[in-house]
């Protein structure tokens, strides 16, 4: 049994997540519950409060752009999509301007049929009226328990109150309001230097702790930037960044009904237009992927009951896609994840998961190491040193390096151990 029976703390989580390699042209403005008006992208304001959807704690978030913003989004691929996902997907695709995002926690408004869609539309209409904008300029999101209608009176009052509390320094309150079983907010503010020397800001908040699996994003994330984009280019940057960040995380293999990642770009920094194929595009896309990777790692680090953060580094695959397939399959293996919790270097669970992943490889070519300690070498040469392996697996951060010996494809996937804490949290989630 693991000696780490206490979940990873917020401070430890940020320390690990912030080890993500940072691009040279990126500066960190704030993290770990910090925020300043100077760190917030120009023209954006935020609010978060307790409206009454939950018995306690903040449960309603509102963000607003003073200027019309271009929007891009990625949404759950689950066939069961909550009404706010369906509505927001339509708005983001069709609208040339999005001005606000409203989100409640504590109730997913999922599997609620026509009444649920009516409530999602009402959230957009109430927000639009309060901010004097159009309903189709509002992204709507909900997260929480599935199968319950929203308590619309508290939500209406909460939206009206939040519209009066909007502030450039309301970001942390907003981030707290979208949490469900999360134990801490997940936020980051960065600044990106463009080729001209002008600087644009980008910030993001995310929530997620359970029901996390890479099948789009499997969580919520709301990003804001004062950079200038055309809609299709922003969508391209988000989709590319998502593929190697949120789409490479997993806590428990369950894809939610309410997932979405939305980014708004309002151009308020008055920097040059970021064009496809340009160096500025490359700079922004790499920065966006960095921010999303940090937020994704924080979600895994806050995984329900998690005591270890596991980075799966897959090399030698036939293609990058094969590497991702291999990594994701290992990341969702309950046998592998429970072995890591028990500090058992059971490489057999890894190779068995690889074998059902769909990735092309010769099993005799597989090599495995834990934090640099060789466990398995080619031709099933078992070189594990049990006592050293036990010591290595006591660490909070465990890198599992897997070589497939097939080609040049590679990927990184992030997951956590599976503990009795996860069972306790989800056994009585509704009660």
Structural account:
- With 431 residues, the protein is α+β, with helices and mostly antiparallel strands.
- It is built from 12 helices and 15 strands.
- Strands 1, 2, 3, 4, 5, 6, 7, 8 and 9 form a 9-stranded mixed β-sheet that branches. A 6-stranded mixed β-sheet has the order 13-12-11-14-10-15.
- Helix 6 links the parallel strand 8 and strand 9.
- Helix 1 packs antiparallel against helix 7, helix 6 crosses helix 7 and helix 8 crosses helix 10.
- The radius of gyration is 22 Å and the shape is globular.
| Mean pLDDT over the full residue set | 93
User: What is the rounded Rg?
Assistant: 22 Å
Oligomer: single chain
* Major sheet characteristics: 9 strands, mixed
Tell me the β content: 25-35%
N-to-C CA distance: 28 Å
Report the strand count.
Answer: 15
Helix content: 25-40%
Number of helices: 12
């Amino acid at each position: 049994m693991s000696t780490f029976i206490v979940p990873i703390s917020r401070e430890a989580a940020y320390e690990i997540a912030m080890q993500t390699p940072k691009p040279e042209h990126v500066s960190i403005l704030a993290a770990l519950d910090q925020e300043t008006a100077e760190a917030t992208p120009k023209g954006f304001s935020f609010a978060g409060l307790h409206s009454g959807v939950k018995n306690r704690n903040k449960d309603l978030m509102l963000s607003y752009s003073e200027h019309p913003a271009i929007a891009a989004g990625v949404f759950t691929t689950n066939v069961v999509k909550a009404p706010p996902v369906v509505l927001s997907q339509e708005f983001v695709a069709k609208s040339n301007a999005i001005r606000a995002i409203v989100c409640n926690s504590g109730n997913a408004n999922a599997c609620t049929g026509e009444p649920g869609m009516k409530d999602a539309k009402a959230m957009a209409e109430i927000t639009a009226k309060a901010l004097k904008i159009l309903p189709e300029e509002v992204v709507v999101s909900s997260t929480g328990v599935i199968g319950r209608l929203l308590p619309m009176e508290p939500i209406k009052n909460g939206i009206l109150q939040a519209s009066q509390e909007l502030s450039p320094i309301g970001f942390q309150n907003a981030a707290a309001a979208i949490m469900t079983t999360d134990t801490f907010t997940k936020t980051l503010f960065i600044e990106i230097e463009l080729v001209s020397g002008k600087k644009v800001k980008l910030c993001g908040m995310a929530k997620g702790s359970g029901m996390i699996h890479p099948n789009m994003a499997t969580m919520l994330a709301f990003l804001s930037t004062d950079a200038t984009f055309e809609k299709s280019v922003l969508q391209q940057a988000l989709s590319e960044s998502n593929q190697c960040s949120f789409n490479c995380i997993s806590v428990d293999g369950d894809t939610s009904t309410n997932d979405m990642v939305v980014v708004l770009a309002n151009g308020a920094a008055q920097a040059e237009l970021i064009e496809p194929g340009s160096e500025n595009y490359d700079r922004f896309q790499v920065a966006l992927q960095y921010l999303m990777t940090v937020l994704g790692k924080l979600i895994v680090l806050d995984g329900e009951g998690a005591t270890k953060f596991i980075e799966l580094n897959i090399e030698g695959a036939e293609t990058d896609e094969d590497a991702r397939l291999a990594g994701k399959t290992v990341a969702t293996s309950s046998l592998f994840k429970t072995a890591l919790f028990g500090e058992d270097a059971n490489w057999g669970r890894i190779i068995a998961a690889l074998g059902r992943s769909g990735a092309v490889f010769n099993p005799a070519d597989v090599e495995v190491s834990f934090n640099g300690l060789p466990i398995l070498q080619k031709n099933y040469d078992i070189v594990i040193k049990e006592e050293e392996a036990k010591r290595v697996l006591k660490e909070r951060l465990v890198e599992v390096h897997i070589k497939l010996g097939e080609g040049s494809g590679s990927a990184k996937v992030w997951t956590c151990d599976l503990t009795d804490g996860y069972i306790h949290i989800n056994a009585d989630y509704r009660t």
